[in-house]
Design brief:
The protein is an alpha/beta fold. It has a single domain (3-151), classed as HUPs (Rossmann fold), CATH 3.40.50.620. The chain is built from eight helices and six strands. It has helices at residues 16-28, 52-63, 74-78, 84-94, 106-109, 118-124, 155-163, 174-183, and strands at 3-9, 33-38, 69-71, 99-105, 126-130, 143-146. Helix 2 links the parallel strand 2 (33-38) and strand 3 (69-71). Helix 2 runs antiparallel to helix 8 (174-183) and helix 4 runs parallel beside helix 6 (118-124).
């Protein structure tokens, strides 16, 4: 049975914090693979600042070269709001023998009670919460916890740096920076 980490997000843009999170879960839980799942439209955020196609391209570029990381585009192909329940149901139908672990940042653990059909979702997937700086990780739901080195990078920070003409070197990969520059994103 394959053990797969699922890492959903807007990835607008993907950055080293995302990659470190995925790597820590991959190593600490001894997973076979981690699948990055860019959302078409996240239910808990405003619309993304870039197109789904651009975010998929950036995510593929960010993980390029990691043999256990891949991009799964089912939410983008489905379009509309991306509810985790629908994604997990689809993946369990397609891969009935796989065991899935849904990766969330520590800051999302306290919001689990507000997730769409959370009780049903808890029956289908194991949640993995990654401790992040300043996050409250207390919950009544069963969540496996993974620790990660302190790194405080966000997509919002990167977009702000770009708008203000500051460098984003060392916040995200050179491949992602090349795509941002190519399409003149976030400026």
């Amino acid at each position: 049975m394959k053990r797969i980490g699922l890492f959903g997000g807007t990835f607008d843009p993907p950055h080293y914090g995302h990659l470190l999170m995925a790597e820590q879960v991959y190593q600490q839980l001894d997973l076979d693979e981690v699948w990055f799942i860019p959302s078409y439209q996240p239910p808990h955020k405003e619309m993304a600042k870039t197109t789904a196609k651009e975010r998929v391209e950036m995510t593929k570029a960010a993980i390029h070269g990691h043999p256990a990381f891949q991009v799964q585009t089912l939410e983008v192909e489905r379009e509309g709001k991306s509810y985790t329940l629908n994604t997990i149901q689809t993946l369990k139908e397609q891969f009935p023998t796989y065991q899935f672990y849904f990766i969330i940042g520590g800051d999302m653990i306290e919001y689990l009670p507000k997730w769409h059909q959370i009780e049903e979702l808890m029956e289908l997937v194991t949640f993995v919460g990654v401790d992040r700086p300043g996050a409250t990780t207390n919950t009544s739901y069963p969540v496996e916890k993974v620790e990660m080195p302190l790194i405080d990078i966000s997509s919002t920070m990167i977009r702000k740096c770009i708008r203000e003409g500051q460098s984003i070197r060392y916040l995200t990969t050179p491949e992602v920076i090349a795509i941002i520059n190519k399409y003149e994103l976030y400026s």
